[in-house]
């Protein structure tokens, strides 16, 4: 009889010990899950904060670029540039033209890159809609032309074409604004795009850049 009681007590002790061990394992697992979850959440929060800060920095840089003057930029009084629609060639006082009377049909400027010269009277209409027009002559390097073409191709409200009779190798024009740059890597390229693609100088912001003339 005493032997049975001893065996029962020993069995209960082992069961109790196993129960305590199982409870300990469950606690460790809970702590492990909580720790991993906390680390994951912290990582996501940290990544989100990093992305947010990066995006904020980019926006601040764009705002700064839009406010800063473009070095060696030429400007014309936008209000004094003619805006009549004409059915003839126009003799512009600057090359490339940055405004003035123009054709009633615009050049497509949804990132269009033209391999041949385009009619100035149509390109000026594109500028009126807020486009930036990139032009180059025979002095421009193939590498610069290619890089600028890639940028234009990714930028709505921009167009690009060769123009032999311009003074600079690489020139950027908007309505009433123009700058000659040294290369495609010149920081004024990005600055000019940021400042004048659909910029405050645009006489007809939001007007179409498709449905016009194309080569």
From TrEMBL:
The keyword Transmembrane applies. Keywords: Membrane, Transmembrane, Transmembrane helix. It comes from the Bacteria. InterPro entries: DUF3105 (IPR021454). The chain crosses the membrane at residues 31-53. This is DUF3105 domain-containing protein.
